Amino acid sequence: MDARPIDVVFFHGAGEGAFEADSLLADSLARHLGAGYSVTMPRLPTDDDSGDSGWLRMIGEAIDAAHPPVVLVGHSAGGYLLLKALALRAPTAVDPGAPGAVEPRAPAAVEPRATATVALVAVIAAPYPGGDPDWTFDGFDLPADLAARLPAEAPLLLYASEDDEVVPFAHRDLYAAALPRAVTRTTTGGHQLGADLSLVAADIRERVPRNRPRHPSPGRTLR
Predict the structure, then answer these.
(1) Cα 174–10–52 angle (5° rounding)?
(2) pLDDT digit string (tens) for 143-190?
(3) Angle of helix 18-33 relative to helix 198-207, nearest 10 degrees?
């Protein structure tokens, strides 16, 4: 019996025009993944007066709506907020006595829950909190025990372009230091990777293969 396609949820970056610009990335990902993978890109808030709570809630809803095991991909601020959403959903508590422990306040809409149904997490060109003065401000943070909070069985991949004009390339290595099991990838094409996610697609196909017949992918759809 044919199985449904593997769900891939892509989270776009923040700011005016980010949804439209990242639609090209989602299109590239869907095209290079091909049949058997269904790429969706929910439209996230462009202006959230309540901070990032709206983003975190909608990211959680998109994860819950996907058919497990789901592949999660985040670009730029979407990558940072994907990691934060997964961390806040995890039923893991920070030891308040641990050196440097920081416990971000979870928005009321974010409920701890299991994340065992995540097949893979890919973070592309994401800014690291405090990575440089331009990316240091109140509310832009991650748990001190981020690595322990992420789905343990899901491969974690970090991508960044050496010529990124928005988020310095060094931010990827800051994430790598905080997430020792992550695999790092170096790309080119600036912050938007030249609208080419062929490398990301190849990594997904290798780690989350279509190992049984599936229905044809409906391609990228928007929620």
Answers:
(1) 65
(2) 999 999 999 999 999 999 999 999 999 999 999 999 999 999 999 999
(3) 50
- Give me the residue label for tokens 């065992």: 116
The structure tokens 């890109």 sit at 41
Mean pLDDT, the chain, rounded, equals: 85
SS3 7: strand
109-133 burial, b at 16+ Cβ within 10 Å, e below that, comes to ebeeeebeebbbbbbbbbbbbebee
What 3-state class would DSSP assign to 124? Answer: strand
Sign of CA dihedral 74, 76, 81, 87: positive
Measured in degrees and rounded to the nearest 5, phi and psi for residue 39 equal -95, 125
Tokens of 51: 């901070």
Distance of CA 62 to the CA centre of its chain: 12
In whole angstroms, what is the distance from residue 138 CA to residue 129 CA? 10
CB 75 within 8 A of CB 25: yes
Q: What is the DSSP letter of 35?
A: T
Q: 98 pLDDT exceeds 70?
A: no
- Residue 95 to residues 84, 114, 148, Cα–Cα distance (Å): 18, 19, 12
Q: State the pTM of this model.
A: 0.84
